[in-house]
Amino acid sequence: MVHNFNAGPSILPKEVFQEASEAILNFNNMGLSILEIGHRTDAFQSVMDEAQSLTRELMNLNAGKEVLFLHGGASTQFFQVPMNLLDEKSGAAYLDCGVWGTKAIKEAKLYGNVEVVASSKDRNYSYIPKGYSIPDKASYFHYTTNNTVEGSQMHAIPETDIPLVADMSSDILSTDMDFNRFALIYAGAQKNIGAAGVNVVITDQEILGKVSRKLPAMMDYREHIKNGSMLNTPPVFAVYVCMLTLRWLKKIGGVKAIQKLNEKKAALLYDTLDQLPLFTPTVAKEDRSLMNAVFTMADADLEKAFLATCKANGMYGVKGHRSVGGFRISMYNALPYESVEAVTDLMKDFANKNG
Amino acid sequence: MVHNFNAGPSILPKEVFQEASEAILNFNNMGLSILEIGHRTDAFQSVMDEAQSLTRELMNLNAGKEVLFLHGGASTQFFQVPMNLLDEKSGAAYLDCGVWGTKAIKEAKLYGNVEVVASSKDRNYSYIPKGYSIPDKASYFHYTTNNTVEGSQMHAIPETDIPLVADMSSDILSTDMDFNRFALIYAGAQKNIGAAGVNVVITDQEILGKVSRKLPAMMDYREHIKNGSMLNTPPVFAVYVCMLTLRWLKKIGGVKAIQKLNEKKAALLYDTLDQLPLFTPTVAKEDRSLMNAVFTMADADLEKAFLATCKANGMYGVKGHRSVGGFRISMYNALPYESVEAVTDLMKDFANKNG
């Protein structure tokens, strides 16, 4: 039995793997692989249409929202967002909560003034800043909903009247919220939506076209909207895996249902960590992520021993990010509760023997 | 029996589909899918390393060449190339041989002066211009080696002392040539190299860093080189499919061997077209593409009937691009000779009945 706690690319539902594997040999009984069909065929158009409409349905999006599946990962969005939205006269406001937010800020600065409204860098991004104010003249306010590396998560949508832009790469579709409050959402697919190599971008038409700079066609959201997310050959297989994963999420009850499971998994993991003095969660209690639990041990030798124990028990992806150290257990949508049971049992056992 | 003449995404070797399908269920006997492993794992690092080294080996590249597998398709390269290379003082020179070259020119103009040295637009891109001169002060000279839509191909590398940049999306690795003569080569993978959603970029270090504009990290080739083509999460599965396809190409004898097969396939197809007055190839004889054969029929009703006959015989992707009309038979590396025999037999039969 293998348990996959990878931070991304990460676990997807078993039935998605099964169907994707079959489609590579014979897609839709066409006698062709999904890898060798034209993207302008009816067969692939149906895939794109269903991926878009499932996204709408699962996120309960207003009719005015556009759903795109674009090349690249969130790192591409770090510059594509300001390229499209950052008006040089008004600038943009950013919240700095972790390495990904920091990278987004760096790219935005290429396009104009960026006001960092708050940062948790002072304590190695171990909490989410509160009590900051968002300037009301900025083009938009950008934040990262979940900090994959540091293990913190925003548990409420900030109040502001300016357009909200969120990087939801590592927690999209994991918790129910009013997704319509965002002017633009982007997410690299390789955590909760599908395979690496595609971005989901959800945007309002009305925020686009307000900057004066000229945009390359591939970077212009309006061009992608106009072309139904097929301005060029899309990452066909990655979009197909998104569609399968979205189908699975709908089948098991949608975002509300998965939220319950995610809360149950996180409760078991954090309760165990809190009960075992051997392990120290690094993030402020109220800001802990339901997706990525980060923790350390006081003793470096014990850390090595615990990592070896995890490995010996078929547990992948437990090692923390090099910038934080320690451990990281990622509990994305597709991770079964049993995997969290397995790792918490292992923790208790390890603590008994070494505590 | 199915024959896949799709122009891209297009046919790949059967054994690639088989291995890719298995890796989605169980990659390297890890008990994990290729879709759920981290890109920083040894397992994926080996995939990236092998994809890069096979590219080097098959193209006989000098040590100074860098091989990258980047997000997006050629359309992304249309602006990434000038962003990195087009010096505003010197401009760039482009050859206009088809819809893809035209798009590349449009994007390049966003970054500086573009001199179009020659164009075959006057005759609907049905030939390759000759006898043009390339300015010796331009930052680079850009051309499309094979025009997928129109069915023409450059059969020699232009002579110039300025850096050569080529879009080889639809004929890379199909014909032996001195790939080291190019300062930069790019190719969307979804024809001869692998699955949609990844670009192969081969570049010299020395041509980079000469422009003054600031580049977003994801657009800066130097950043990708520095990070071993893993600046961010790469399109993992698409890179894996490239590796499998490159392995297959090496196994069957490499570029020289596939060139012979490609010439044999193209000879059979064009000879048949030339012998049957019912069909009219649209491209000048000396400029015909080994990859995409484009032809029309004088009678629109007969065109419909021929298309229906192809469909009834399990032939996919025969319809021409909407900008050219008629038919297009794509004969990429992985297309078996038997498929060309099948379609030429069908043509002869159809001509007998309707000629």
From TrEMBL, chains A, B:
Q: Which GO terms describe its cellular component?
A: cytoplasm
Q: Name one GO biological process term.
A: pyridoxine biosynthetic process
Is this entry keyworded Amino-acid biosynthesis?
yes
Predominant location: cytoplasm
Where can this protein be found? Cytoplasm
Q: What is its EC number?
A: 2.6.1.52
Gene3D superfamilies registered for this protein in UniProt: Aspartate Aminotransferase, domain 1, Type I PLP-dependent aspartate aminotransferase-like (Major domain)
What keyword terms does UniProt attach to this protein? Amino-acid biosynthesis, Aminotransferase, Cytoplasm, Pyridoxal phosphate, Pyridoxine biosynthesis, Serine biosynthesis, Transferase
User: Catalysed reaction(s)?
Assistant: O-phospho-L-serine + 2-oxoglutarate = 3-phosphooxypyruvate + L-glutamate; 4-(phosphooxy)-L-threonine + 2-oxoglutarate = (R)-3-hydroxy-2-oxo-4-phosphooxybutanoate + L-glutamate
The reply on keyword Cytoplasm is yes
Q: What does the entry's cofactor note say about binding and number?
A: Binds 1 pyridoxal phosphate per subunit.
Q: In which pathway does it act?
A: Amino-acid biosynthesis; L-serine biosynthesis; L-serine from 3-phospho-D-glycerate: step 2/3; Cofactor biosynthesis; pyridoxine 5'-phosphate biosynthesis; pyridoxine 5'-phosphate from D-erythrose 4-phosphate: step 3/5
Q: Which cofactor does it need?
A: pyridoxal 5'-phosphate
Where, by residue number, does pyridoxal 5'-phosphate bind? A74, S75, W100, T148, D167, Q190, N232, T233
**PANTHER family in alphabetical order:** PHOSPHOSERINE AMINOTRANSFERASE (PTHR43247)
Its function, per the record, reads: Catalyzes the reversible conversion of 3-phosphohydroxypyruvate to phosphoserine and of 3-hydroxy-2-oxo-4-phosphonooxybutanoate to phosphohydroxythreonine.
What is the protein's given name? Phosphoserine aminotransferase
